[in-house]
Design goal:
Elements (H helix, E strand, L loop, with lengths): L1 E12 L2 E4 L4 E5 L7 E12 L13 E13 L11 E5 L27 E9 L21 E4 L1 H11 L10 E3 L26 E2 L23 E3 L9 H6 L14 E2 L9 E2 L3 H8 L15 E3 L5 E2 L2 H5 L5 E13 L12 E6 L7 E2 L3 E4 L11 E5 L13 E7 L9 H10 L1 E8 L4 E9 L10 E17 L5 E2 L5 E2 L4 E19 L18 E2 L15 H7 L18 H4 L1 H6 L3 H12 L4 H21 L3 H43 L1 E9 L4 E8 L6 E7 L4 E3 L3 H11 L11 E2 L6 E5 L4 E8 L33 E8 L5 E12 L5 E8 L4 E7 L14 E4 L5 E4 L8 E7 L7 E9 L9 E18 L4 E8 L5 E7 L5 E4 L4 E3 L4 E8 L5 E11 L5 E12 L5 E7 L7 E8 L6 E7 L5 E3 L3 E4 L4 E8 L6 E11 L4 E11 L1
Length: about 1100
């Protein structure tokens, strides 16, 4: 037995090469008649169009493999040959081949013999040990010992004479659909100044990244790439061979289809509205957008590029920006399985900048009386609590005021950058069923006023959702008899169009004489400690007071020389709880007695006077003795309180002095951090002593760290253009920990590189509750991110552990830009595993030779990138733990293409919807009923069931019903489909009073093709606007009178004269058919389902319609 190790490449033409990465080991018998056969197969993807007639929704594709070339090589034909480089010519055409299959051939005879060759290197090891060989390109490939050429003609004879191969199994590949990779460049962002990123003069389209691309950013005509490698069945292997085999890891691609990630510069989904709709829009009394002078805002064209000048925005005298969002209308797009009037009420969820996440109130779709077209835009109207239309103006307007009271010092340039580059993602929900209709994305760059008083723009946005479909005809039977289920095909479908108007009104900043003017922070990346010591201005030495005195708190520093004295119990709650003096107890008793009535107090006083009179009569010395004891007890208690206060003052004095001294060596620096972006700065550290010191650097937060790698330090210095000295091997890592140390000479200054980077997202979980206030017309400015501003101290300690300097970094989080949003639906309490595929980088770009790295904001989510060769797509794999239904988990994924993770090139927002799962298998054309169990909550509720496709799914009970507290309710689900395949549907149970989601199911439906009873064929003329009328007979097989129903899988092509009929037992009935006309030639197969009155399938007819 011999082991052959092959590592090489296949050349089809001088300009194209198919490279085989890795080696292939074969065990063979050393015999001259032994040969190796090579067959080159291509994968073809063909749309499933029936004679030129395309389906109405999306194009489904069939995938098959076809042989294009083949060749044969005998490794032992020359007994004395020692070959290392082999070149085998491949051939095609109508010639006998060992596989007995049809081989592709070109239209012209191939004249270049070197055009279809396979070249590889091999090593022959009779002991079974394989060697590792490195492949070379064709131009570098030179034989070291002997080069062997084989022709296909001789090889074919040898292969046929040795052993004819019958029923040879091909590669174990399960193919679904080919991916069309998008070669769009990704957006590269850098740290430092917001304007450091190069922006073109005519601002290009901002990153689409839209949530409307949703969980799978694919155009309906583009399939999902999925190539899964199945285990090769190995038959006929003896036990002896199995004992000698070594365990090797095989290349394996997970069985899930990767999600195609489009480029960030993809054309957006916004389009210009028609003139007729604009006329109808402006005549509907929508509120106008006017500036401070009551002039109508300038209307911009969304198709025109924006000439953006950041300096003009910064020099604008109107520093206040009032952003307006007006939701005007919604256009329905008819979908299969739903009514024409769906949806009837909608609401929206989104988040603008760092304002709180917004869930708008319910808006009713009001159809226009001027047009009866179903696709005409419906005006959105605010409803009252009882569901009636409100008396206010149509549409919904939200207002955001961005002024100096909202923005922090230096934040305005980041806000303008947000408007210039960001895309606002809006989720559209069905308010009745709490089902997601789809998502839309709108670019905010038109809100940049560029010195104008006010601007406005009208967008018509496509609301896009994701559908999962599977065609049963794509299932293939393997040679081993196993039936492989094809992968799910993913399509993005337009569910509607949202008409929205955006506006920005400029305003003048109102100056407040009492407010202090705050200067923006310095943009320098070198932090110099302050040389001016801060003095103590009096007052308490507590840490909070010292923090505010030195201007390091959130309040601006105000110099005050007078301090108001405060009682110690009012300052320290711990001390107040320890003080238990007699006077305090008497005061508490007096405060409690103030709530008593006059009659009760008088009765108590009389009773106490009677007791005292009795005691005075009994003995005259008792009163004096009791008074003396009370005074002694009070003095003892006061003495204990004084000692406690003295100890407290001594303890606070030490702490206050230490805090005051530490402020003298503390330097405060403010950074505006974005998720995933590294903020770099250098701190100038000085040795104040006349002796050398080894300084230890300690940080309170691991997100703020010291850059100890010289290459990383040089990278950030070049990125931020910081011209300071750089030293190699500057730091020494402490042995017992990873704390860096630096050596300082006497009176020496060194720059310590620091980096802050956080992957924690402050995004608030968006619930599916549409319950909002009726007065939600104005969004107040407030903090919304859960990641609040924080202080981080970095201590520079000398050898005696005393701090030489303290760098206090104030971190102000800023919103991150979302390039794309993904929304996935997963069964509850189960792991979610998915791959997001990035297209290969363009050759010659910096991204082409860089290695991708990913980080996730959720530490429980596992994400990593599989290394691939240059020019190949890259997959990012996710593994997300499960959660109970109906929770929604959100997290952020950042993708980097630089080695030091300076700035993310992609930022993705991921939504995970966890639902209860139900698998249903049924036959097409028949109604099958299934049972669900709904469990009650802590209180009784009035609920109603909603499905994503009401025409395919029926629910019993259909109306509103009471769900008992902690009870169980049985729900019957009826399923009827007209097309075979697999798909996903959704079922929600909603509280009708609070509009909260009570339960949610993910329905995994599989529809099987029914048994065909009879088949017909008919020819219908093309064009003319006239269809064809035909009749087919049906005989009642039962002896009694029965009723039947008729339905078809193509109601748009075939209509019945009567959809319900009644016939006697054994009688015949002529079914009247009406075929719709067609404007193009083709062939279509139509199924006719004949069901009983309970919608159970009795017979199924197939009619082949040929349009000529």
């Amino acid at each position: 037995m011999h082991v052959l190790s092959i590592h090489g490449h296949l050349s089809l033409s001088p300009s194209s090469i198919l490279m085989l990465h890795g080696n292939m080991e074969l065990r063979m018998i050393r015999h001259p008649a032994f040969s190796l056969l090579f067959q080159l197969e291509y994968v073809f993807s063909v749309p499933l169009a029936r004679d030129g007639k395309m389906p109405s929704m999306a194009v489904q594709r069939a995938v098959f493999m076809q042989s294009v070339r083949w060749g044969v090589w005998s490794p032992f034909s020359d007994p004395d040959g020692q070959y290392e480089s082999v070149c085998v010519n491949l051939q095609g055409g109508a010639l006998p081949n060992p596989y007995g299959v049809m081989v592709y051939t070109a239209h012209t005879q191939q004249t270049n013999a070197e055009g279809s060759v396979i070249k590889f290197k091999f090593t022959n090891n009779s002991k079974g040990a394989s060697s590792t060989l490195m492949s070379k390109s064709i131009s570098q490939e030179k034989p070291q010992q002997k080069k062997w050429h084989a022709t296909s003609h001789d090889g074919s004879k040898l292969g046929l004479e040795a052993s004819p191969l019958h029923n040879i199994r091909g590669p174990g590949l399960s193919l679904s659909q080919l991916a069309v990779a998008s070669h769009n460049p990704t957006l590269s962002r850098t740290t430092g100044s917001p304007w450091q990123q190069q922006l073109p003069a005519p601002l290009a389209l901002s990153p689409m990244a839209s949530a409307h691309q949703l969980s799978h950013a694919v155009h309906p005509a583009v399939g999902i790439a999925h190539l899964e490698v199945s285990a090769m069945e190995r038959e006929g292997m003896s036990d002896a061979l199995e004992e000698e085999c070594d365990l090797h890891e095989l290349t394996f691609t997970p069985v899930h289809a990767p999600v195609i990630m489009l480029g960030t510069h993809t054309t957006g989904s916004s389009r210009a509205s028609s003139r007729g709709f604009l006329a109808h829009l402006f005549s509907s009394r929508f509120p106008e957008i006017r500036d401070d002078l009551n002039q109508v805002a300038e209307l911009l064209d969304p198709e025109e590029p924006v000439n953006f000048d950041p300096h003009r925005e910064e020099a604008d005298p109107l520093q206040v920006n009032i952003l307006l969002l007006q939701f005007l209308a919604f256009t329905r797009v008819h979908q299969a399985g739903v009514d024409m009037e769906w949806p009837s009420m909608v609401h929206f969820t989104f988040q603008l900048y760092r304002f709180p996440p917004v869930t708008t109130q319910r808006l009713k779709l009001v159809a226009s009386e001027a047009s009866s077209r179903p696709d005409y835009p419906c005006i959105l109207a605010v409803t009252n609590r009882d569901g009636s239309i409100g008396s206010g103006p149509p549409g919904l307007q939200l207002q955001y005021r961005v002024d100096h009271a909202f923005l922090k010092p230096g934040e305005r340039i980041w806000f303008l950058r947000y408007l210039a580059l960001h895309t606002l993602h809006i989720d559209v929900w069905d308010s009745d069923s709490s089902l997601l209709i789809g998502s839309a994305a709108v670019q905010l760059k038109h809100l940049l006023r560029q010195g104008r008083a006010a601007v406005q723009v009208i967008h018509e946005l496509e609301v896009i959702s994701t559908e999962y479909l599977q065609d049963a005809s794509l299932a293939r039977a393997h040679a081993g008899g196993q039936r492989a289920i094809p992968a799910m095909s993913v399509y993005t479908i337009v569910k509607g169009r949202l008409h929205i108007r955006l506006g920005n009104i400029g305003g003048v900043v109102q100056k407040n004489p009492n407010s202090s003017v705050l200067l923006p922070p310095s943009r320098s990346h070198v932090i110099q400690p302050s040389q001016t010591p801060t003095g103590f201005q009096g007052g308490s030495l507590s840490s909070n007071t010292v923090l505010n005195l030195n201007g390091t708190g959130f309040l601006p520093f105000v110099s005050r020389n007078a301090r108001r004295a405060q009682r110690l119990p009012d300052i320290d709650g711990e001390l107040a709880s320890l003080l238990q003096s007699r006077m305090r107890r008497v005061d508490d008793a007096w405060l409690q007695s103030r709530g008593e009535t006059e009659e009760v107090r008088q009765r108590k006083s009389d009773r106490m006077a009677a007791v005292r009179q009795y005691e005075e009569n009994a003995t005259s010395n008792t009163h004096e003795k009791a008074s003396y004891m009370r005074r002694k007890e009070d003095r003892t208690q006061h003495f204990q309180d004084l000692r406690l206060i003295e100890a407290y003052r001594e303890r606070c004095k030490m702490e206050g002095i230490i805090n005051m001294l530490s402020q003298a060596i503390t330097t405060t620096h403010t950074i505006y951090a974005t998720l995933g972006t590294a903020e770099f700065f250098e701190f100038v550290l000085k040795n104040p002593f006349n002796i050398p010191q080894t300084v230890t650097i300690e940080s309170e937060d691991p997100e703020l760290s010291v850059i100890v790698n010289a290459e990383e330090w040089r990278y950030f210095k070049d990125l931020t253009k910081t011209c300071t000295p750089l030293e190699v091997e500057m730091f020494h890592m402490k042995e017992d920990s990873s704390t860096p140390q630096v050596y300082l000479r006497p009176r020496e200054n060194v720059n310590i590189p620091l980096k802050y980077q956080s992957f924690v997202s402050g995004h608030v979980l968006l619930c599916q509750d549409s319950k909002t206030s009726d007065s939600l017309h104005f969004a107040h400015h407030q903090q919304s991110n859960t990641v609040m501003a924080k202080f981080i101290k970095v201590f520079f300690r000398a050898e005696d552990s005393q701090p030489l300097a303290i760098c206090q970094v104030r971190v102000e989080p800023t919103p991150h830009i979302v390039d794309q949003a993904f929304r996935f639906y997963q069964p509850e309490l189960s792991f979610f595993k998915k791959a997001i595929r990035l297209p290969p980088a363009e050759p010659g770009t910096p991204d082409a030779c860089s290695r991708l790295q990913v980080r996730c904001s959720d530490p429980n989510v596992i994400c990593h990138v599989i290394a691939t060769a240059p020019g190949e797509p890259r997959d990012i794999y996710l593994k997300v733990p499960g959660a109970p239904s109906p929770q929604i988990k959100t997290f952020v994924i950042t993708v980097f293409n630089d080695p030091w993770l300076a700035s993310p090139t992609q930022t993705w927002q991921v939504y995970m919807h966890y639902l209860q799962k139900l698998d249903i298998s049924c036959v097409c054309g028949t109604l099958s009923w299934h049972s669900l169990v709904l469990r009650g909550t802590q209180s009784i509720r009035k609920v109603k069931c909603y499905t994503s496709h009401p025409l395919e799914l029926q629910v019993d009970p259909e109306e509103v019903f009471a769900l008992p507290a902690l009870g169980v309710q049985d729900i019957r689900l009826g399923v009827k489909a007209l097309h075979s395949g697999s798909c996903f549907r959704y079922l929600n149970v909603v509280d009708v009073d609070t509009r909260q989601l009570v339960a949610s199911w993910l329905l995994c439906l599989t529809y099987r093709q029914p048994v065909i009873s009879r088949a017909f064929e008919i020819q219908v003329p093309v064009g003319g606007g006239r269809g064809s009328n035909k009749k087919i007979s049906f005989t009642n097989p039962y002896p009694s009178n029965r009723g039947f129903r008729l339905c078809s899988d193509h109601p748009d092509l075939l209509q019945f004269k009567e959809e319900k009929f009644q016939i006697d037992g054994g009688a015949s009935y002529n079914i009247g058919l009406r075929f719709a006309p067609s404007q193009s030639a083709g062939t279509e197969e139509i199924l006719i389902f004949i069901n009983d009155l309970e919608d159970k399938n009795e017979e199924t007819y197939c009619i082949k319609v040929v349009y000529r």
